[in-house]
Write a structure and sequence with these properties.
single chain; alpha+beta; Alpha-Beta Plaits; 2 domains; four-stranded antiparallel beta sheet; 9 helices; 4 strands
């Protein structure tokens, strides 16, 4: 009777309970390891970090459940399609992290636990290394939004070209508007500094040209479109 109950609960499968639990536990451990590596020097919500930690085990169970069936490919494609239809749009880095978590669960579910561990270790090392070298971030950090106030009698067309050529790699006038009953012009530039350390030198040089009127330099606001 107990044997019949066990058979009815376990179904027609040759996979033992131990062989079922090992991939799940391993994928959970690898998920937590990858979540910790992703969190290092990266701002993210608690729910997203938790998702990265448990997602490999979820995908692992799905793969083990459909293993050997014709619908396995459809199930995997459906799982991966969930990345695009999340409730909130994500950055390219977040989507990449989700794919890495899913790939970890996929390898574990197919029985390649050692390969999954090697894959996660490599990805963790790569992400931590990129956070140290700031790969692809230097140009964004040096890109600034510069606002300059000048008197109305000043020709601003090429008034600051000397300073811009000295301290920036590129500059572009975005907008011009008047204030103070037309006595003040406010110019807004998009600039890319040669180095972050020259920002004060640039502002001091500009102050000598605009009569010590207001100057504002801030980080350029990101685009409002979805980032990919």
């Amino acid at each position: 009777m107990l044997k019949d109950l066990y058979t009815s609960l376990m179904g027609n499968t040759t996979v033992s309970l131990v062989n079922y639990l090992i991939p799940i536990i391993c994928s959970l451990l690898l998920g937590f390891l990858f979540a910790l590596a992703y969190k290092y020097k990266t701002r993210s919500s608690k729910s997203f970090i938790a998702t990265l930690a448990i997602l490999p085990s979820v995908v692992c169970v799905v793969i083990m459940a459909v293993n050997g069936n014709i619908g396995a490919g459809v199930a995997v494609a459906g799982a991966f399609s969930l990345v695009r239809f999340r409730s909130a749009p994500g950055t390219a880095k977040e989507i990449s992290a989700l794919f890495i978590s899913m790939a970890t669960g996929l390898l574990s579910g197919m029985g390649f636990v050692i390969y999954a561990a090697i894959f996660v270790l490599i990805m963790c090392l790569v992400m931590i290394a990129l956070s140290f070298v700031a790969f692809g971030e230097d140009e964004d950090e040096c890109r600034k939004s510069l606002s300059i106030a000048i008197p109305e009698n000043m020709n601003y067309t090429s008034a600051f070209d000397e300073e811009f050529n000295k301290f920036t790699t590129s500059h572009r006038l975005l907008s011009t508007k008047t204030s103070g009953m037309g006595s003040i012009f406010r110019l807004t530039y998009e600039i890319t500094l040669k180095d972050l350390s020259v920002e004060k030198e640039l502002i001091d040089a500009l102050r000598c040209k605009n009569g010590n009127l207001e100057i504002s330099c801030s980080t350029k606001m990101p685009k409002t479109i979805e980032e990919l």
